[in-house]
Amino acid sequence: MYNILLLGSGGREHSIAWALSKDERVKNLFCAPGNAGISSIAKSVSINILDNDLLYDFVIKNNINLIVVGPEQPLQNGVVNYFNDKGIKIFGPNEYASQLETSKLFARYIMEESNIPQPAFFECSDELEIFSLKNKLGFPLVLKADGLAAGKGVIICNNDDELNEAIDDMFINKKFGLASAKISVEECLKGEELSVFAICDGENYKIINSAQDHKRIYDNDKGPNTGGMGAYSPAPQFNNKLRKKVESNIIKPILSAMRDKGNPYKGFLYIGIMVENNEPYVIEFNVRLGDPEAQVLIPLVKSSFLDIILSSISGTLNNLEIELDDKYAVTIVLASDGYPESYEKGKQISGLNNLKTDIIFHAGTDIKNGKFITNGGRVLNVVALNKDLKSAINHAYALADKINFDNKYFRKDIASKAVKYLKEQDL
Ligand SMILES: Nc1ncnc2c1ncn2[C@@H]1O[C@H](COP(=O)(O)OP(=O)(O)O)[C@@H](O)[C@H]1O
Ligand SMILES: [Mg+2]
C-alpha cells in the first residue's frame, strides 16, 4: 500500500492526483500545497515545497513511501537527490538531469554533443555579442534566458526595437533575475510546434502520447504568452514517421548522453519540437509533464498511472505496456480576465455542482464559506474525451459554458488547428 505525497498546486497536479486516487493501492494521498479542487481527493498540506527538511519531517510523520513531483522548481532544488539519499522512493530526475530544463544552454550543449537536431544557438552574456549575431542570423531572432523563468524567459525579436527592449529586459532591468545572466541566442525555426511525452527509467523509455498546447492569450495565437490556455492530445500531426525520427534522433541519443554523464534520466521527459519539412527539431526539453498538457494526457492513459511511476523508479519500464484510450482529449482553460497581467481574484464560481461526472481539474481556486472562488489567473480546466475530435471540442466548450464566474475568459479556438489538419489530410 502507498502513502503518497504529491508536490504542486496546479491543474497538472489535480490530474495526477485524480489518476493516483483511482488506484486501490493508494491508501493515503497528500498534496503540498494542493488547491481547492485537489482537496476533494487528497489531503492538502501547507508546506513550502522548496524546503526539503520540512518535507522530510512530514514524510516521516505520515509514513510516506512515495513522493511524486509535479513542477520543475523542486527538481531544480534537488528534492530527488535529497530523498534518494534518505532511501525514500521519489519520482523524477535528479538535480543534474533536471538541467535539461533548468538550463537552456546545458540542454543545447548536450544536444550539440549528441547530434540532436536543433536550431543554431550561441551563448551570450553581453549585448555586443548579440548585435554581431543579429548580423549573422537576421530577424526574427530568439533570445532565451538560460535559467527557469516561469515560461516567460523567451523573447522572439522581429526588429531592432524589439531586440533592444529584450536586451534591456535581460541584462539591464534583469526582469528574469539571475536566469538571464547568460542567454541562448537562437535561429528562429518555422513550422508546426508540438509536444511529445515520454516516461524514462534511465535505460528505457516509452512514449506516452503527443499533444499541442496554446500558449498565447488570444485566439489565433495572438497576444502575450501565458502558462497555456488549452491543449489537445494526441496531435494528429505526430504520425508514425515523425515518431520514429523523434525516437532515433532525439530520445535515444539524449538518454544515452545522460547515462554517459553519470546521471541516467528518470522521470517524464517533455520534448518540445518544431516540425519543419517533416523533420523534428528540439525547441526545448522539460523534465516534468506540461500544464495544461497533463490534463489531456492523463485521462487518456488506461493503464495504472501508479505503475508507470513505479516502473520509472525501479527501472522496469520495459516490462510495462502503456494502454491508451483511442480517443482525443481536449482541455480548455477558464481564466480570469486580465491574465497573464493583472486580474481580480475572489469571484464566486457557479455551475460546478452540476458537473460531478465530468472531468474538471482545478488550478487557481479556493474555498470560502463552503463555496468555490477564483484564486488565480488560470482558474479551471474543463476536459472532454471523444473518438471524434470535433465532438470532444464541442463537449469541452459546452462544459466551459456551464461554469460561470465574473470576468471568466477562455480561448474559442482550442484544437481548431488539429481540425484543420485532419480536414487537409482528409482523415
Ligand atoms: N529557436 C526557436 N525558434 C522558433 N521558436 C522558438 C524557438 N525557441 C523557442 N521558441 C518559441 O518560444 C516558445 C517558448 O520557448 P521554450 O524554449 O519552450 O521556453 P519556455 O517554455 O521555457 O518559455 C516556444 O514554445 C516556441 O514557440
Ligand atoms: Mg516551452
Write a structural description.
The protein is of the alpha+beta class and 427 residues long. Helices cover 31% and strands 30% of the residues. The chain folds into four domains: 2-91, Rossmann fold (3-Layer(aba) Sandwich), CATH 3.40.50.20; 126-181, Dna Ligase, domain 1 (2-Layer Sandwich), CATH 3.30.1490; 192-319, ATP-grasp fold, B domain (D-amino Acid Aminotransferase, Chain A, domain 1); 328-425, Phosphoribosylglycinamide synthetase, C-terminal domain (Glycinamide Ribonucleotide Synthetase, Chain A, domain 4). The strands form five sheets. Strands 10, 11, 14, 15, 16, 17, 18, 21 and 22 form a nine-stranded antiparallel beta sheet that branches. It has a five-stranded parallel beta sheet with strand order 3-2-1-4-5, with helices on both faces. The protein is globular, with a radius of gyration of 21 Å. The mean pLDDT is 95. The structure holds adenosine-5'-diphosphate and magnesium ion.
Structural class: alpha+beta
Residue windows where pLDDT falls under 50 for at least 5 positions: none
**Small molecules bound:** adenosine-5'-diphosphate, magnesium ion
Number of domains: 4
Instruction: Please name the CATH topology of the largest domain.
Output: D-amino Acid Aminotransferase, Chain A, domain 1
- Approximate strand percentage: 25-35%
Largest pleated sheet: 9 strands, antiparallel
> Helicity level, as a percent range?
25-40%
CATH-wise, what's the superfamily of the largest domain?
ATP-grasp fold, B domain
- Rg, please? 21 Å
Q: What overall geometry do the principal axes of the alpha carbons give? A: globular
The total beta strand count reads: 22
Under the CATH scheme, the architecture of the largest domain is: 2-Layer Sandwich
Enumerate how many helices there are, as a single number: 13
- Give the integer mean of the pLDDT values: 95
- Report the top-level CATH class of the largest domain: Alpha Beta
Distance separating the two termini: 45 Å
